[in-house]
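Example record

Each entry pairs one chain with its bound ligand, zinc ion.
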Amino acid sequence: MKEKRHCPYCGMLLVQKWIGGRNRLICAACNQTIYENPTPASCLVVLNDRRDVLLVKRNVAPKSGFWCLPGGFIEMGEHPEEAALRELREETGITGVIDRLIGVRTNPSRQYGAVLLVGYLVTRYSGAPSPGDDASETAFFQLTALPEIAFDSHEKFIRDIDTGNLPPAFPKSIS
Ligand SMILES: [Zn+2]
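Structure tokens for the complex follow.
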């Protein structure tokens, strides 16, 4: 991850200081602490009616040329489900419906330090996948014949579906 050198609020130099049990960056001029957190993203395990999983071959860094789940970063004001479904449309051209949460993981990232990833299952969708943004290919793969997956957390979400290792599903409204 690139080191931040200047305060994003006043432009003065940042310094290291021990705050709240960690070494953090703080602005020597305006006293603003710069908190570093994982960057939120969401992704989808999309299964067809044969329980094959939809993968996207990346044509952007990081891991260009590797297969991964459809998904991406959550925009400000966007629900993680909306972000995942938007990325699905952008990358594969299909429109999906979220079935349920698979889980939440973090993945180390050279660029962002760490990515916090929310994984959802989709088994209902319309359209036939074709590669769009950030993708050179899209294809369904048998769970027993997966290619090398770009990110560990993506592979683990697929394994969670395969093994049924899922959090309990709660009813939508609890009243
Ligand atoms: Zn400042």
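The two ends are 45 Å apart (CA to CA).
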